Structures are given as C-alpha cells and as structure tokens.
C-alpha cells in the first residue's frame, strides 16, 4: 500500500493541477489535491471484489502516516499532533463524502460546486472533468492493474499529456 500511496501522492503534486486546475499551492491546496486523488482510488477499491475493499484501510493508514510525518517534520509538537490529525481526519472524510455526493448527483453542477468550495473556485469545472475522466478510466481496472499501473492517473490537461508523451 505504501507504493500505491506514493503514486497517489505523486499524482496529487502534478503542476497542472495547481497551474491550470487553480488549486492553491499551499498546505491546504496540497491536502485538497491529495484528498481528491485518494477519493478516486478508495472509490475504485470499494467497487472491486475482495480483498480490494480491505486494502482501503491500509491505504488510508499510509496517507495519514504521511500527513502525520509532515506535521512532525514541520515542527508541530508531539502534544499538538493528535489534535491536528483529528482535524485533518474530519476534513478528509468530509471531503470524501462531499465528492461521493457530487458523483451521485444527477447534474454535474453538484460536483463542480463541491470542488469550487473545497479545492478551487476558478478551476472547479476542469477539476470535475478530470475526476470524471479518472473515474471512467479506473472503471476498467482490476485490483492488480490499480496496484501496479504506471502512471496511475491520466494527465490533467493537454499540455501535461504532451509533456508526458
């Protein structure tokens, strides 16, 4: 799961998400991008047959270990880390629920509004299109492909696709 999480984290740091997707290049923005990418992988794991669903918790544990290490390396005291992690956990699960509701809504505007509120006021439509494209691409992946595909996520924009080619 650490390798899978590494690929998720790497995808969440793609410059196009910040430059073209309008995600702020800040701690909060990087958290939002990471959460969006985690949502997509967790969603696919939930859709796959066992043991995929059970791997979700391992992936979440890897993600929260990474976030906790970031706090500690950033100088947050040992006493304050649990409080910060609790707040991050609430934010993470809230974002996951909001994205799930956005996907479940019959109109695209619900997902766009969720992304506008949480990730990027200006880039929400492009981010929604990206999330839907990833969901479609992931729909064809089995567990083994999800665990080993390189790159795991498609390019965000045409410039990045041309650069990756």
UniProtKB/TrEMBL annotation:
Signal peptide: none annotated. Residues 22-152 form the Ubiquinol-cytochrome c chaperone domain. It comes from the Bacteria. Belongs to the UPF0174 family. Belongs to the CBP3 family. PANTHER family: UBIQUINOL-CYTOCHROME C REDUCTASE COMPLEX ASSEMBLY FACTOR 1 FAMILY MEMBER, UBIQUINOL-CYTOCHROME-C REDUCTASE COMPLEX ASSEMBLY FACTOR 1. This is Ubiquinol-cytochrome C chaperone family protein. It comes from Bosea minatitlanensis.
């Amino acid at each position: 799961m650490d390798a899978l999480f590494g690929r998720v984290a790497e995808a969440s740091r793609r410059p196009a998400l910040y430059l073209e997707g309008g995600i702020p290049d800040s701690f909060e923005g990087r958290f939002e991008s990471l959460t969006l990418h985690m949502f997509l992988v967790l969603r696919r794991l939930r859709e796959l047959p066992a043991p995929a669903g059970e791997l979700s918790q391992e992936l979440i544990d890897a993600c929260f270990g990474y976030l906790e290490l970031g706090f500690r390396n950033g100088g947050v005291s040992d006493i304050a880390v649990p409080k910060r992690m609790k707040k991050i956990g609430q934010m993470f699960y809230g974002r996951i629920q909001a994205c799930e509701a956005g996907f479940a809504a019959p109109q695209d505007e619900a997902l766009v509004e969720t992304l506008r509120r949480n990730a990027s006021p200006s880039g929400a439509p492009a981010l929604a299109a990206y999330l839907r494209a990833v969901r479609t691409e992931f729909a064809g992946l089995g567990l083994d492909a999800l665990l080993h595909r390189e790159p795991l996520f498609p390019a965000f924009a045409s410039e990045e696709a041309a650069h990756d080619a």
